[in-house]
Amino acid sequence: MTQADDQRFSPKTETAERMQKILYEVKRVVVGQDRFLERVMVALLAGGHLLVEGVPGLAKTLTIKTLAGVLHGQFKRIQFTPDLVPADLIGTRIYNQKSGEFSTALGPVFTHLLLADEINRAPAKVQSALLEVMQERQVTIAGQTHFVPEPFLVMATQNPIETEGTYPLPEAQVDRFLMKVLVDYPSDEEEFVIAQRVTGPRIDVQPVASMEQLVQLQRECREVYVDPSLVQYAVRLVSATRAPAAAGLAELAPLITYGASPRATIGLIEGARALALMRGRGYALPEDMSDLAPDVLRHRVVLSYQALSDNLSADELVRRVMDHVPPPAKPLAHERRAA
């Protein structure tokens, strides 16, 4: 084994300890929601965006705001409403009567962590304005391009119980989100602790990292080794959602209108890298990818009318695909034998 291979497979204990410090500080304020917190950190490390679905009051806003304080970064929240216009999001040109010149007032998207609350309540023109920021990390105002700060994460929320007067997100925008996470109610024990903390003395979090350190962690994440067999596993999973019959799942063909795009394959690989880094490894394992597969695929699989009439969910179809497509048994066995 060469020195480069030795560094590639060496444990990332220092990085894992730093991530644990960040999570520990956030959990001083946020009770429970361990899986949700883990997915937020995966999105940060992988440089992706997060779509969160859950009823009100489940600490979605508190989580991202607390995380911004722990990372010493900028945080802004936008409440999406039907009367919102793109200028409220990205900014606009303002005329100064005294100087007789126009100046640019940048919108709230110019921040590190952006919370788009109830994103499906805004009309399509506002959603399309956010689309450029998410994909290109830039905004064009009056022909001038302005870049958002790095790192940049959009966490958009949806309320599943109030769908009247909402504008469903177009597939092109939904596909830009690395993951869609479902947030559920806390347990009785967690809710007891929540009530104690909210009604007790205020807890102030301390910054334990900086945005510059987060950028460095993102660079380390891109260096995590992903075996070709794992890449092939991601390709087979995504391909099975597009052509179920070719993958031996003919019974799913009438239930899926459109399968996942190549962004899903990339998201599985990048997400597995981030999860492996959080777990202190310099290489990804099949369980890293399997853990994230439902979150990466559920919003990219478009169900047919037959699936909806049968009351089937995207999660159920993704589970069937994962049961049929086995992960690689030991993707690093040949590397260990060579060592």
UniProtKB/TrEMBL annotation:
SUPFAM superfamilies: P-loop containing nucleoside triphosphate hydrolases. It comes from the Bacteria. Residues 49-179 form the ATPase AAA-3 domain. Pfam families: AAA_3, AAA_lid_2. Residues 254-320 form the ChlI/MoxR AAA lid domain. This is AAA family ATPase. It comes from Ottowia pentelensis.
